[in-house]
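Much of the work behind modern protein science is quiet bookkeeping, done one molecule at a time. The protein below has been through that process, and both of its lines are reproduced in full.
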Amino acid sequence: MWFIVLIIYSLICGFLSSLVGEAKGYPKKNWFWMGFWTGIFGLLAAAGMPNIYEQNENIKFLKDLEQAPKTFIYKVKQ
């Protein structure tokens, strides 16, 4: 009986971890197995990971800012 409960618990944690990981831009399959094998700790790890989509936007903004003329940067700082 406890084995069935453990499998159900692992499947739920794996499913939730894959949803959170996919929402943050990570491979769904990898986060499913992380949640399946580590349980609630995998789910917490997925929740704690940074969002790839936001990081890519920030990197693009910083690259654009580096290419901007110096006078534009000076005006923004004022």
Observations:
- The chain has one domain: 2-77.
